[in-house]
Amino acid sequence: MVTSIEGAPGRKGRSAVGDADLQLQWARIRGRLKEEFGEAAFRSWLKAMTLADASGDRIKIAVPNRFHRDWVVSHYADRILTLWHNANPAIKSVEVVIGTPAQPREAELAAPVPAEAAAAEETALEVGAALDPRFTFENFVTGKPNELAYAASKRVAECACAPKNTVPFNPLFLYGGVGLGKTHLMHAIAWEIRKACPKRKVIYLSAEKFMFQFIRALRFKDTMAFKEQFRSVDVLMIDDVQFISGKDSTQEEFFHTFNALVDQNRQIVISADKSPSDLEGLEERMRSRLGWGLVADIHPTTYELRLGILQAKAERSGVEIGPKVLEFLAHKITSNVRELEGALNRLVAHAQLVGRSVTIETAQEVLHDLLRANDRRVTIEEIQKRVAEHYNIRLGDMHSARRARAVARPRQVAMYLAKQLTPRSLPEIGRKFGGRDHTTVMHAVRKIEELKAQDRTLAEDLELLRRMLET
Ligand code: ADP
Ligand code: MG
To answer: Does the structure show a pLDDT above 90 at 436?
Structure first.
């Protein structure tokens, strides 16, 4: 829904927000953001921001939902703070909160949608999603962990633009943990095609949006049009399909759309946080169909890749950040690229604010929360993933009720390692293994300890896994 921008949250009469100077500054900042990040990103993420509150040195900005907030915080908050500070040196912090602009909520539920609202909704719901101007192939740093995914994505873009548009692998299935560049690569494919052969129709959208549109089409009895949109595309990209799993009717529709496009030799690109075989709540036929093309895994970053990314981004930021500081960050922030970027942005913002170059000490100070979070590294999910890979079983079997030795033993190994390597309690561990009881976990830990003493191979496996997980 298109929300009214100015004013609404301020109507409770908070004097500061009503302040004409502040409003003027805010309008200018919005203008700058639009210039810097481009029309598309502005429309998707920044336009809906409202000035919610201002008191002392603090500005509060409201956005419509959590997803929106997380995105704005990780992608734009630092820049917003810098712009605020430049506009008004008294401002020292910017907080992004979730807030619905004060509008009658009934409008959302009323059965006959008022003409005006329906029109507004229409424009807000074009099929695809806006592309982030920074997510291009040029801006993507490659290394061992992502080279296959990168090469495959480039290939898809090239083939889509070939005179007789060919489909190298269908679908291209990109998977990997959060913040490792899946969305970036998909946008890059779309940008590339837009640049090289703008006649091709490309749709990029999140699985959530796909679902949302489908459900909406059902509600407005307009599924034909819904289907048509998708069936006339050259390249369809759906991001984060793990969100589709479970929703039966959407899955069904997705499956049909998918098949229709594949039959017409149209390219499909899918991303998910797990491989097709590990996606839960997906019908078997869908699962197998998703794995038909090329499945490209984006692995967790290595030190070299992290450093490369930091160097590229630091250079682009225009602020001087010494090599030692970048090395320090590459060592310390190992979770994912998004956090790495967040850390760098924060340092850049800090350097701009204080007008001094950044040292390791300042980095430690400015980033203490991030650094601390990255210290406790091993998670139960990683353990499960590694152990499943090691024993060549499905990740899903970590949660399943299957008792066959071939899966039960690796599961026990994973529970044992979870106990050894994480601070989680037995009940917490049990929950992560398909809701098992803490006594089951205790039993597993004892069992593995016992076996380890007798079984050399197992002892070596455990040592190997531990080392892989801890570095
Ligand atoms: P995912 O979709 O896998 O969760 P994103 O594609 O949103 O991750 O990436 C998170 C952030 O990290 C984005 O800002 C993206 O530009 C950046 N990023 C990820 N991988 C790379 C890379 N190899 N080179 C440059 N930036 C990257
Ligand atoms: Mg993503």
So the answer is: yes
